[in-house]
Every structure is written in C-alpha cells, then in structure tokens.
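Backbone-to-sequence.
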C-alpha cells in the first residue's frame, strides 16, 4: 500500500509540529529583541518655541532627547502658511552627559515662515 500511495502522513506529524514550534519560538525571541532594542535607542526632537524675526529669518528652540550620551544630528524645517518648506537646517549635538538638551537655531527662509518642525533626529 505504501508503494502505491506513499508513506502515512501521520508518521511525520510530530516532526512537522516540532519544527513549527521551534520556528515560532525563534520568531518570538527575535520580535521581543527588536522591540526592546528600538525602544531603548530612540532619539527624538521637538520644537519648543519659534519666533519669526523677519520675512527671511526665524529662530527656533528645539528640545532633543537622546539615550545615554550619544552624539545626535537633527533636521529642522521652517514652513510657510501653505505648508511648503521655506528653509531648513541640520544641527549637531556632540556627545555629552545630558539626555535632554535645548538648542537655539536660526534658519534663513525664502519667504515668511509660520511654523517650524523637527523632521528627524538620529
């Protein structure tokens, strides 16, 4: 009968289930590590205040939160009323002991800005 129809699939079932269980366990361990790793290495930047000095210049104060004493670079944009980018700058924060730091920036703009935004920090 086995020659004609092949081996009984029930004989391989424990091995298949064991392989699926091992694969699922490996996937869960990796998922837990990835979540833990990304949760503890987050760098963030937020605009605390901004002031329109003139039609072609704004001052922006950002707060940068970083894990440990890592060096950080943040990109900041000045936005016009129609949400178009009218100016941008990148600032660097050297390694240091402070986890939360405020930085004052000046951005030259093409036309009057009405908002500012931190687009990313790394």
């Amino acid at each position: 009968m086995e020659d004609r129809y092949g081996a009984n699939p029930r004989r391989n079932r424990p091995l298949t289930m064991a392989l699926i269980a091992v694969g699922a366990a490996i996937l869960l361990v990796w998922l837990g590590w990835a979540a833990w790793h990304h949760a503890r290495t987050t760098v963030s930047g937020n605009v605390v205040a901004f002031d329109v000095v003139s039609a072609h210049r704004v001052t922006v104060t950002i707060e940068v939160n970083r894990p440990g004493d890592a060096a950080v670079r943040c990109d900041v944009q000045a936005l016009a009323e129609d949400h178009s980018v009218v100016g941008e700058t990148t600032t660097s924060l050297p390694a240091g002991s402070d986890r939360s730091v405020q930085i004052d920036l000046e951005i030259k703009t093409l036309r009057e800005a009405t908002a500012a935004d931190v687009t990313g920090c790394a």
